[in-house]
User: What shape does this take?
Amino acid sequence: MQGMSRTVPLILIVCVSLLVWAEGGASAARGGAQVPSIRLPGPAFAALESITPEHIRWHVRFLSHDLLEGRGTGQRGGDLAAEYIATQFAEYGLKPAGDHGTYMQKVPLVGITTLPQTQFALLPKRGEAMILKPLEEYVAYDQTQQPESDVDAEIVFVGYGIEAPEYNWDDYKNADVRGKVLMMLVNEPSSNDPRFFKGKALTYYGRWTYKYEEAARRGAVGVILVHKAEMASYPWDVVRNSNSGEKAALKMEGPALKVASWIQYEVASRLASASGMNLEKAMASAQSRDFHPVTLNARLKAHMMSQVRSFESNNVLAVLPGSDRGVAGEAVLYTAHYDHFGIRSDMTGDNIFNGAADNATGCGILLELARAFGSARERPHRSILFAAVTAEEQGLLGSEYLGKHSPIPAGKITLDINYDDVKPLGAPEEVEVSGAERTTFYPNVQATAKEFRLAIRPDARPEAGHFYRSDHFSLARVGIPSFSINEGMKYKGHPESWGIEKEKEYVEKHYHQPSDEYHSEMDFVGDSAMARFGFALGWEAASLPKLVGWEKGDEFDAARISSQK
Ligand SMILES: [Zn+2]
Assistant: This one.
């Protein structure tokens, strides 16, 4: 454990907790007695105190204005938002950290639409060819980003398609799957043992993205995921909706599948019996460590036809150089995505996706943090990197690109703190920091939360895998200890049920809808509190003698270690 008391030279300070709820930056303690604290140096504390709800409000108001046209990725409104953010960074005295001395980091993107001319047939050795109906029986994308691809290959059932050394699990058992099509199950081997794939909680191994990536790394040409509602925790409709229309991706850099697909369980079952395999039995055997890949007596014959469109957007990057030459090459990273869905021209009525909560709020916080750090009379030891990332709504693409092409190498970024959708509902009494408990920084997070009088609210549904659905995850994948900061459910002056009700109302009526708009009665005190909390954590992480890491054996620990070799 790294305690600040041993690590930061003693400094003059004030008690943080007195100030957390202070609105508009006017604090009870400012003129009052300077209570000694062991956490932040005086100038840092003064900068923290300057963070106000109203600053955040004005950024949110502008960024979610109809004139910003919903900040669509690769669209005029998104580019305007990026330019606004870059302008603020410059105004705060931060240095450009994008391409060629600018604040912009170009993110090359590709939009892929699977065309109806695509053919997808399962061919058991005996019996009839199964020509599948698109969207009803299967969905498929060609990840190679080519307009046409052909696959005619043997199908191998690989269980869950997972190799996880930390859980002593390997479905592949060194089988050569080059040129093969791999049929596999979604999710991960089931267990209530927290030491085995984190028990009920979903790990990244259970996500379909991991399964595609692992298969591609091994040289497979295709993956067929078997969809069973109980196993996926969502119905086929969800698979169909998220696999129809255009799908965006980063311009290809690594190995990719010609066929990345899902089929309905019933289809898999029919295929299995036509190829002399008992699917139920095979699925049961996949629960065991002793599972070995099974070659089916069947092939996939697919002709993929895609419309491929290139476009680009930008991450907006700025840096405040650290004060200590020894560690100024290392950094704390703050992230928030600025993109949203733009305008849907096929919709009548209000069709501008303003994204006030999602995620003008996170941008407002990011900008307010940038201003506060930029204005501090003393700089932290390590550098502070600020990144407003693009294409989050397209699948965390801007942050993925940043993780792979960070101006400060991933192994030198001590911590990423992300903000996404921080609702302007008033003063929170809780904070959510899911994922932080997996890092060596957690004791500091706990201590700071205590000082801020914020109770840490645990992830209510770890099995839903929310950790894998916001930008901090892209940074975790390249090894950076990362988590998002958000409010919990308990707000000052309200019972917890009020917060839960508000959340429910938001999800049902406004989430990813044009009605996620700015209103003048919104209360940004909570956003300000989350910014202050993140400021204190970031300053601390920038001052610790050692870089933060993942706990030993964590699923991201291996990436961390290899990034620091
Ligand atoms: Zn969103």
About this structure: Confidence is low (pLDDT under 50) at residues 1-38. The pocket of zinc ion is lined by residues 358, 393, 512 (CB under 6 Å). The chain has 16 helices and 22 strands.
